[in-house]
Amino acid sequence: MGSALLEVDTMEKRDLIMMLREHLKDKCYMIVFEDVWKIEFWKDVEHALLGNNQNSRVVLTTRNKAVAEFVPFSMAEGFVQSNNHLQSKHFVEEYLEELIDRNLVQVLERTESGRVRFCRVHDMMYEIIHRKREECYFCLFSNERDLNHFCKTWRISIQERIDEVLESIKNSKIRSVFLFDVGKLPKSFMTTLVTTFKLIKVLDFENAPVDSLPNGVGKLFHLHYLSLKNTKVKELPKSINMLINLETLNLKWTPMLEFSIEIKNLKQLQSLIFQQINDEGPCHNLVKIPKGFGALTELQSLLKVHIHSEALKELKMLTQLRKLRVNLVYRDVWDLFAIVENMENFERLSVRLLTSGKEIVDLESVASPPQCLERLDLGMYIKKLPIWISELQNLIRLELILVGSTNDLMRDLQALPNLLVFILTVRDYDEELHFKEGWFPKLQVLCLYEFIELKRMVIEKGAMPSLTELQIGSCPLLKDIPTGIEHLRNLKTLLFDMMLKTVYCMIKDDNWEKLTNHISEIRASYNETPRRYNFFKITFLSSLSAEDFEQLLKDINYKYY
Question: Where along the chain do its domains lie?
Fold first, then answer.
């Protein structure tokens, strides 16, 4: 190599790159590029820096912001490159779609917007992945027979057994820990985890028997992702303010009601997720945000929180917000919309009023959200549809609570070009609901709730041609099968909500089977508990005699229509 270095000045660029790659291929290296000024520099050197799984590092310093933004960085695990213009999730989706196009990944289910919800790989591909995982120690599972290799892996998945794990990984450099089906979690495990493994980037305790975090968690300087979803953690230790690299904090379905003021120090936080277990009362799902949260200027998702008047002033500072789900009082609605109007990247807005009454909110006078809005959920009574809703061309999901004429609203919204999901709850409306030809061309999911006075539903041929799911209920006066339901040829799921008696009468109609034989799944719900619905399949109900059906209603203590 010494003689080769003397020839560097005379070598071609390609030959120099090949020489460097050959020299670095089996070495753990650290290279520092100091005071870089040109973007082209990284383009020249990136091909020469071999990724050889030897824990190598590249450090680049620059005073040029353009260089800093151009050179790729990765976030929690570092598998996906990102930049300041696109979130890492978009890169993930692009990579996943590429694998799907190559038939390396199979899609099981997509969301209404077309994003992959569940996927899998072919058995043969799974065997290849499994073998490669073991060869490179990418991730190891605690239920595997041989735990000796734990010291070589960066990621562990702890499943059921936990006693032997700490001893096996005590000399490792763990970066990620995932828990599955762990029945008992000793406090010694948590303490050892946060005091021994200082390089951890990902901690996923979802569904684990955890009721508190040790104060030493603040020493995990490199932690990017922390999930306590569905645990019993009521509060976070004060040392949480030391996690200056934390990007995601998931506290969904925890009993936490307040967040300490230390949250304002998490300057890299991008996603903050809450949702209370208890849904009772007008003030359900509330988590109080402390003073100073406006310092979280990188925040992109703020979900299920209570925003009071003073907090609205700080919300103005979160200019990177993309998703916001809040509960607030009536007088603050106008201020909230005035704030989100100026958020250029805004994608989702969910607003619910903190009230036990049913005040009607005039939204015609509020500021319009940005045109890029994709999802809008208004948990408040509105009497007249504001014009700006029908102008949201990118809207794919809409949830409304209406007082007044349903048909007028349908006429105003039917032309939204990208609307895929429409969820409507109503009060004081027309007795007939009419969907006309050409209406809602792309709509896939339609949910009609609390149509107490609805007597007749008509669907013209050519209306909602893309509809795959229809939910109706409760509609005690709707005695007949929706007229024209046979025109919905793409309908796969039909759900009648809390109206068993009405549905039982419908399925005894001679025309029932002829009009619905193209629908693969028809169900009727009979009870609702938090986070769960109970259903009967129509095939089961249709097999019951009138006497058996009446006995069934008594057995389930049915109190609805």
Answer: 2-73, 89-123, 396-561
